[in-house]
Amino acid sequence: MDDKLAKLKAEGMLAHLPPLRRRQFLAGAAAAAGVGALGLPRMAAAQSGTTLRISSYTNPSSMDPAIGGNGGDHVYLWNFYDTLIEWDFDTLAPIPSLAKAWAFTDPTTLVLTLEEGVTFHDGSPFNAEAVVFNLERNRSAETSNVKPDLATIESTEATGEFEVTIRLKQPDTALPLILSDRAGMMVSPTALNNDPEANVNRNAVGAGPWKFVSWTDHDKVEGTRNETYWRDGQPAMDNLVMTITPERATAMRAVQSGQSDLAYSLSESQKTLIERLPNLRLVEGPTVYIFQLYLNRSRGPLQDVKVRQALQLAIDREAYVQATQAGVGEPARMFLPQAHWAYSEAAAEHVYFDLDKAKFLLKEAGLESGFEIDFVSYTDQAFVQRQEVVLEQLSKINVRGSFRNGPVPDIVSRFMGKEKSGDSMLSAWTGRPDPTQTYDLLFSENSFYNPGRTPPPEGFAEALAQSRATSDQAERAAAFDKLQTIVMRDALAITLSVRYEVNVATDKVTGFLPNLLGKPKFREVKVG
Prior knowledge:
This protein has 528 residues and is of the alpha+beta class.
C-alpha cells in the first residue's frame, strides 16, 4: 500500500494532500480519479473443491442492494455483486473495479470506462446499458433506499458500448466512492425483467465472485464459484457458506472448534482471548464504525434540541468504551474517528460529559423531573450490555426507559420504516467510504436512516453541497467542519464510541485482511 501511494504521489495525483500517516489518509473521492489507469494487479491463487465457512452476525435484510436497509448486508452483497468502483483497504481511496477507469471531464460530467467481457450470473452481458439501468433504478425506483446517494445526478447515458457518461446537477467529487457502495452494485437487468420496480430480494443476481445458491433466514447464506468471473484466479474458494450466528461468543467457539474458518465483528473483549489461543489468528484494525443512539426527532421531547443536547452531555463516553469494549476503541464525538482527515475539532467541542449542564438543559425544556424514552435494539449479549450502560448513565439525569429487542433487520425495518416503532434505537452506523454519504444518509430529510424524516438544521444542505464541490482535501475538510458542527451542536443523534475491528481466523486461513470500513471482503481468502 505504501508503494501504491508513492506511485500516486509521484504521478502528481495526490499533490494537494498534506503529509499524513498511513491510517490517516482516507482520500477524498476525486483525489484518485485517475487511479483506473494504474492497472493494479488482480491475481489470486485459486483452489478447487473448497468451501469457505464464515460465522456472520446478522441476518440480511435483502439480497437486493437497492432495497436493503441493514449496514451488515454489505458483507453478504459483496460476494454476489461487484461495484463500479472499489476502495483501498487501508485508505478508502477509490480504485478500479467494473469501471476500469473514470474521469471528471468537467466539474459536472463523470465518464466511466467499463471492463469488457464481463457477464452477470444469468449469462447476460455487463455493458453500459446495464450500468445506466442500474443507476437510473437506484436513483428513481420507488423502493430504492439509495436515492440520496445519487441525488446529484441529472442524467446517465451510454455513450459507447462500454462507456457511461454521468451528468450532474452540481459538482460531486464524492460520487466515485459512492459508486463503491450499494449505489454502485450492479444487478442483472435481465433478472429484473428490465423493470426498475422489480427486485431480487431473495435471489441475488450480480457479477460477483460467487453465484447465489440459497438464503435460509436466521440460518445461513450460500454461494458457489462464478466460473466466468472476470478477475483471474478469483474467488480463491469454490463454495461459500455464511452461518448466521448473532452471539459473538458462539461464533468465536465455532472458529475455535473448526466448525468455521473465520468470524468477523467480534466483541472487543474477545481480543485478549484470541491472542492467547493456539491455532487462531487475530485480524484487527481501526474502522469508521460508530455506535450511536439514533433519534426519531419527530417524537415527543426529542423534538426539542435542548433535550437532545442534554442526552448528549449525559453520556460518559470514556466509561462507555471501558465497560462495553474493554477499552478497545475510542469515544465517538462525531461520525468519524480521530484519525480521519475530515475529523472536526470544532464539532468535537459540542460532545463532552457534563451532568450538571445536562440537568440544566432539561430544566430549561420543562423536564426537570425527567421523562421516558421508548428504546429499541438487538438481542445479542453485547448489545444487551450496551443497553444496560446507556440506561444507567441516562438515569443520572432522570431519563428512564426500557428496551424492546429483536433481530437486527426486524428492528431496523420497524424503527426506520413506515411503522416508526420507538423513540430511539441503540445500534451502529457501519460507515461508508466517503463521509458525504454518512451525513447525507443519516440526516437528509427523506433518507431511510432519518426515522422521523425531519429536515436538517439550517446550513446543513449548503455545507453538504460544499463537501462535494471540490477535490481539494483541505477545502472538503473545511466543509465537513461546518457540517459536523451543525450535526453535533444540535445533537441530531447521540454518538457513543468508535468500534475497532476484531476478527478471528484459524491459522490455515490466508488473505483475510482488516479494512478501514470494518466490513470484510472474502474473494481472496483461502483455507489451507
